[in-house]
Amino acid sequence: MQLLVSVADPREARAALAGGADLIDAKEPRRGALGAVAPGRLRGICNAVGAHRPVSAALGDAITAARIERAAQAAGKAGVTYVKVGFRGIGSAARIRELAVAAVGAGVHLILVGYADWDRVGGAGPDVVLDVAAAVGATGVLMDTAIKEAGLFDLVPRDIVTAWVAAAHGAGLLAALAGSLTGPDLRTAREAGADIVGVRGAACLGGRTGCVSAARVVTLSALARRAPLPRSGALV
Which among 41, 53, 84, 200 is annotated as catalytic? Predict the structure, then answer.
C-alpha cells in the first residue's frame, strides 16, 4: 500500500519526500477536505518534488464543468499526475457524471472522491461515485470524509470499506482511503486492500493545519508498508 501525504507548500513537500511518502498531494487544509492550493504554490510544490515522486492535487468540489476542466488542465501543465475532484452538495449521479467527464480529457489521471459522510453534506455516496468513475474512465476513486470531526473507520464499518475497495478493483479502478486517519488506521486500510492511503493531520505537528513532519512521515511510511518501525520514529 502506498502512502500519500498532503502538503500545503514546497517546504512541506520536501519534508514528505524526506520521510518517504510515495505520493505528494497538494492541498490547502484550511479550505476544507479538498481545498485547492494557489496556482503559484502548486507550481512550487511540483518543482520541489521534481521527478522523485508523483504529485496529486486537490481541485475542490466541482461546481461547473468548465471550471473543473480549466483547473484540471492547469494542474497538468504545472506537472501534476493525479487530480482529485469531489462532489459536495451534488446528489445526482447524472450531474456527477457530467462534471467528471469534463476533467477526463484534461491530460491528468482523474480520481473521483466519494464522501463517507455524504448525507451530512448533501452529496452522493461513495458507491454512486464509484459507478460514475468506472463509467467515465477515471483512474481511481477515493473514499474520504468531508467534515474532519471523525475518522473514516468511525463512520463506515470495516467490512463495508473492504467491499467498496473490492468493487473498485473489480471495475479496474485504483482504490484510495483517507479521512482523519491515524497510524493504527493504516493497518485497517491495508487489510481492506487499499492501493493508497492518504494522511494529513497524522503527518503534522499540530494537527491538520500544522506542519508536515518528516519524522512522522517516516513512521507512517513504515506502517503503510508493514515494515518494522524505526527506533527514532515518532509515535502517531
Answer: 84
How many CB atoms within 10 Å of residue 60? 21
* pTM for the predicted model, two decimal places: 0.93
pLDDT band of 86, cuts 50, 70, 90: very high
pLDDT, tens digit, for every residue of 146-171? 999 899 999 999 999 999 999 999 99
CATH number, domain of 37, equals 3.20.20.380
Catalytic, out of 8, 12, 16, 27: 27
Domain hosting residue 161, numbered range: 2-224
Is 229 part of a structural domain of the chain?
no
Strands (E), 1-159: 2-7, 23-26, 55-61, 82-86, 109-115, 140-144
Are 55 and 45 in contact, with CB atoms under 8 Å apart? yes
Helix or strand holding residue 211 (H, E):
strand 211-212
Rounded CA separation 86/99 (Å): 10
The reply to whether 84 belongs to the active site is yes
At 115 the pLDDT is 98
Mean pLDDT of 161-189: 97
- Cell 492535487 found at: 57
Residue 27: active-site member: yes
